[in-house]
Design brief:
By secondary structure, this protein is mainly beta. It is built from one helix and seven strands. The strands form two sheets. It has a four-stranded antiparallel β-sheet, with no helix packed on it. A three-stranded mixed β-sheet has the order 4-1-7, with no helix packed on it. The longest helix has 12 residues, at about 1-15.
Length: about 110
């Protein structure tokens, strides 16, 4: 029995563990202002790249952000830009498929 347990353990260990793909997540805007853009970048960089969302997210609104192509779940930085050009950044956020990230006035970039 111990031999079979060892064989099964080794068989499962041979398969790599893959992160879950994130195809969409939600942004809850509690900044007090209307957001016009959302940016996302891996936590180990600050290369924001193009916006993952362009449109309006009104204060108090929870909006779905679709990601194409999908990204791997993990730690990301999220930046929102409001209609006045002010930025709100949240660093080291665990982004998971279809989960909500709340952004508040506390994330305002001074």
């Amino acid at each position: 029995m111990k031999k079979w347990s060892l064989v099964l353990l080794l068989a499962f260990a041979a398969f790599p563990v893959f992160s879950e793909e994130v195809t969409a997540f939600y942004v809850l805007n509690n900044t007090g202002f209307t957001i016009k853009s959302v940016f996302l970048c891996p936590a180990d960089t600050e290369n924001w790249g193009p916006a993952v969302f362009n449109g309006y997210i009104y204060n108090g609104q929870n909006t779905r952000i679709n990601l194409a192509p999908p990204v791997q779940s993990g730690s990301y930085h999220i930046r929102l830009v409001d209609i006045d050009g002010d930025r709100y950044s949240k660093f080291g956020v665990e982004v998971k498929d279809f989960e909500t990230v709340e952004i508040t006035i506390g994330e305002f970039d001074f």
